[in-house]
């Protein structure tokens, strides 16, 4: 033989010792088998709370494995008179590191596990700096007592040790593939291979961290996935979950779907619904017991908040307190926040509310919502606002956390409301207003089923941090913005909003943008375009109270007698009444200090006068942070905003802002007079609804008459198959045709006999074609179309969403052809076109 069988053999003493150990283990094996089965059940009980999808394995050590280990370590074990601690071994494999941490904390905190700290190891500790490799937590434990996590301790366990390993799936993969092959092989790999294995370990550790972050986001989304659906989606989800609950045959499994149903009810502020859904399961045992207690108790407190000393409210508090005893992880922080809210409803109990919010922050340090609530009570209970200097990093981190949740679509609009709070505390009022404006847009858009209580909570926060005293100016801006949102949502004006102007001639248009001298050149280039767009406008034009820049163009419009212009001036300046009644404002000099107060005031006046915000049109031209707020408050309250110069300053920032760029009410409009005219001037149809429908069909038939039916363009479909937005466009063209003909000098009237068709001049056709193109651009923009160099009707992209002067003669020729057909189309609808 090439290998000497005598080399490497144990000594006779070791062989005898080894034989004795193997015989002893053979006798003990049945005990370890029972021990392992009980340990597996105990660990599964822990995982049902902290890691429901974890893999739990337990087994006694196999004979061959035992014999090999005793042979390899005979010298060590004999010298120290010890043996292996993993004869009963259990393993918990979780999805994330956070679950590992929760399970380890549960093991350490359980009186039934006596941990041998000297022999237990956390393999992750020595790897926290520059090493990568085996990561796993090992506990060597003994069992004591009669019961551990609801599982009886078997007599077979006795004083025997067991080893529990806790690791993630990726850590388990590395250990199984790499670590065990080295550790159990008895050979030392070459150094380059060690380096390669360390590199793999580093990649897996990074992946573990990324998985953990993704799982946290998914869990938050899962918790609140119904919280901000629109009404239709909520109804659909409610129906699905109701079916699931009614179909579940096992009573002990009903609390799960009941909680999901309660989540939908909670999203809309239906606390009575939450209580009714969960009440049958308050006493139920099982994995959901703690959450049912917490949510049911919180609902009771919400329902009876006006009677905090009443029996029902106290029962709700008791349920939350009982849930707190067993709550772990994220649920614990939620339960503590519920206790804080309930405490805040009791007069003179604000210190206790603050303490509970602080505990919620400690239980979930990365939760910005708990931090925002805690800070509000901390200030109210004695801290001054100046303490923000030492908390700025925490506030900035909380803003980043909110931003991440907003980007992921989680808990909307709560992240924006919370960002608004933190920006305000950091003395960044315009950032705060911007965040609140986005939250309000979500509240009012119909895309989110948000209760009015969300706005009330922010108003309460402002009162709290100022202890009910006078608010500084920038904080008063936020308060008034929230009151405006509430007025739009409820349809009731708040008496705290003081109106200056009582009546407005409709339609109402707001001309917003910069008033600084730097904006003069850009505005001067647009001046003639805007003057032409407002020619004949008979409504109200609102702008800044100055004759500089954009507001100066509004003054020029007033000088021409086109519109009644209201110029809103800074509160610090007296309101004057110039001689010209069409321009009501102080004629302030350039550089006047405007703030967010002026936009808030004109919106207060508009809503107080009964104007529907959805009927207001806003034109934006450049501007700075005040203009940026003007644009956002308009969108937030439901107005339509046309950015005429999207390449400049605040307008450019808005069009690129991911929070706003996809808003259907934000239009990127070419600097074209007739396009702006179509946007600011509502149609005045001379036709009835039935007549418009008839004319619209004729317009579409004319369009199809060019033998292009084989074209795959969606606009080439027959009327019954035509997409609804394209039908609407034809109807609008029919409604505007009479109006444009009258603008060209004709009169449209009902025909008393055979209708005559006047011969339109080239100049008349060009004027009306330009007007029709402007109408078409606005119609397309409001239907969600966007400019693109390549035409793609299926995705609503067109290269023709530009001003009239940028069109080719071929495209202009199409608009001219449309105009020429109008007299015949109107004749078919029973009208005639005549010269006055």
In short:
The protein has 29 helices and 19 strands. A seven-stranded parallel beta sheet has the order 12-11-10-9-13-14-15, sandwiched between helices. Strands 1, 2, 3, 4, 5 and 8 form a six-stranded mixed beta sheet that branches.
Structure notes:
There is one protein chain. With 836 residues, the protein is α/β, with parallel strands linked by helices. The chain has 5 domains: 12-206, Beta Polymerase, domain 2, CATH 3.30.460; 225-332, Serine Threonine Protein Phosphatase 5, Tetratricopeptide repeat (Alpha Horseshoe), CATH 1.25.40; 366-493, no CATH class; 508-680, Rossmann fold (3-Layer(aba) Sandwich); 689-834, Globin-like (Orthogonal Bundle). 54% of the residues lie in helices and 9% in strands. The chain has a 7-stranded parallel beta sheet, with helices on both faces. Strands 1, 2, 3, 4, 5 and 8 form a 6-stranded mixed beta sheet that branches. A two-stranded antiparallel sheet has the order 6-7. The protein is elongated, with a radius of gyration of 37 Å. The model is unreliable at 126-133, 221-228, 571-583 and 585-592 (pLDDT under 50).
């Amino acid at each position: 033989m090439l290998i000497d069988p005598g080399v490497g053999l144990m000594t006779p003493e070791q062989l005898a010792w080894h034989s004795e150990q193997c015989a002893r283990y053979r006798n003990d094996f049945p005990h370890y088998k029972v021990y392992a089965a009980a340990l597996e059940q105990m660990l599964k009980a822990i995982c049902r709370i902290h890691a429901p999808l974890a893999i739990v394995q337990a087994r006694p050590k196999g004979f061959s494995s035992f014999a090999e280990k005793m042979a390899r370590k005979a010298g060590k074990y004999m010298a120290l008179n010890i043996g292996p601690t993993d004869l009963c071994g259990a393993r918990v494999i979780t999805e994330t590191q956070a679950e590992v941490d929760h399970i380890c904390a549960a093991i350490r905190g359980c009186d039934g596990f006596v941990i041998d700290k000297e022999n237990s190891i956390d393999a992750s500790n020595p790897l926290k700096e520059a090493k990568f490799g085996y990561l796993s937590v090992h506990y060597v434990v003994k069992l004591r007592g009669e019961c551990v996590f609801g599982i009886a301790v078997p007599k077979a366990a006795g004083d025997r040790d067991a080893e529990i390993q806790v690791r993630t799936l990726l850590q388990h993969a590395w250990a199984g593939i790499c670590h065990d092959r080295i550790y159990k092989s008895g050979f030392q790999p070459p150094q380059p291979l060690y380096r390669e294995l360390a590199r793999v370990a580093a990649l897996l550790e990074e992946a573990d961290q990324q998985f953990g972050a993704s799982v946290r986001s998914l869990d938050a989304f899962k918790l609140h996935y119904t919280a901000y659906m629109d009404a239709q989606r909520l109804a659909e989800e409610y129906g699905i979950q109701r079916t699931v609950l009614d179909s579940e045959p096992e009573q002990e499994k009903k609390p799960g779907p009941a909680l999901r149903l309660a989540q939908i009810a909670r999203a809309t502020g239906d606390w009575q619904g939450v209580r009714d859904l969960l009440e049958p399961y308050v006493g139920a045992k099982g994995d959901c017991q703690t959450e049912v207690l917490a949510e049911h108790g919180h609902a009771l407190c919400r329902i009876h908040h006006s009677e905090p000393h009443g029996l029902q409210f106290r029962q709700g508090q008791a349920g939350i307190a009982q849930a707190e005893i067993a709550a772990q992880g994220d649920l614990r922080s939620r339960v503590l926040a519920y206790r804080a809210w309930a405490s805040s409803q009791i007069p003179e109990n604000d210190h206790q509310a603050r303490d509970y919010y602080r505990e919620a922050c400690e239980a979930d340090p990365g939760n910005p919502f708990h931090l925002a609530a805690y800070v509000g009570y901390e200030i109210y209970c004695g801290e001054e606002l100046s303490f923000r200097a030492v908390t700025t990093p925490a506030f900035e981190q909380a803003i980043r956390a909110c931003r991440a949740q907003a980007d992921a679509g989680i808990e909307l609009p709560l992240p924006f409301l919370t960002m608004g709070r933190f920006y305000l505390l950091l003395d960044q009022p315009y950032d705060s207003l911007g965040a609140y404006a986005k939250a309000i847009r979500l509240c009012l858009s119909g895309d989110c089923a948000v209760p009015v209580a969300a706005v009330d909570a922010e108003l309460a926060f402002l009162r709290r941090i100022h202890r009910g005293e006078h608010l500084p100016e920038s904080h008063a801006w936020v308060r008034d913005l929230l009151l405006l949102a509430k007025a739009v949502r409820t349809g009731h004006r708040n008496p705290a909003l003081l109106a200056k102007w009582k009546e407005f001639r409709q339609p109402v248009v707001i001309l917003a943008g910069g008033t600084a001298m730097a904006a003069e050149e850009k505005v001067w280039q647009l001046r003639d375009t805007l003057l032409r767009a407002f020619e004949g406008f008979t409504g109200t034009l609102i702008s800044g109270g100055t004759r500089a820049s954009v507001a100066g163009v509004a003054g020029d419009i007033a000088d021409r007698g086109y519109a009644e212009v209201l110029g809103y001036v800074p509160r610090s300046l007296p309101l004057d009444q110039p001689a010209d009644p069409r321009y009501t404002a102080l004629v302030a000099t350039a550089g006047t200090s405007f703030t967010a107060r002026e936009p808030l005031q004109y919106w207060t006046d508009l809503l107080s006068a009964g104007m529907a915000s959805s009927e207001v049109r806003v034109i934006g031209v450049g501007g700075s942070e005040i203009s940026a707020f003007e644009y956002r408050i308009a969108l937030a309250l439901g107005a339509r905003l046309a950015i005429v110069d999207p390449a400049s300053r605040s307008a450019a920032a808005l069009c690129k802002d991911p929070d706003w760029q996809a808003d259907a009410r934000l239009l990127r409009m070419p600097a074209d007079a007739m396009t702006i005219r179509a946007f600011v001037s509502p149609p005045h149809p001379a036709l009835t609804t039935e007549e418009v429908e008839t004319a619209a069909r004729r317009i579409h038939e004319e369009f199809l008459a060019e033998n292009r039916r084989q074209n795959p363009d969606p606009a080439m479909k027959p009327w019954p198959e035509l997409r609804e937005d394209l039908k609407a466009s034809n109807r609008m063209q029919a409604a505007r045709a009479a109006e444009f003909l009258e603008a060209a000098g004709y009169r449209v009237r009902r025909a008393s006999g055979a209708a005559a068709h006047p011969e339109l001049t080239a100049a008349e056709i060009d004027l009306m074609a330009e007007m029709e193109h402007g109408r078409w651009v606005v119609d397309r923009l409001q239907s969600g179309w966007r400019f693109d160099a390549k035409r793609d009707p299926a995705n609503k992209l067109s290269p023709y969403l530009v001003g009239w002067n940028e069109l080719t003669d071929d495209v202009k020729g199409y608009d001219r052809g449309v105009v020429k057909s109008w007299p015949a189309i109107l004749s078919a609808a029973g009208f005639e076109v005549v010269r006055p």
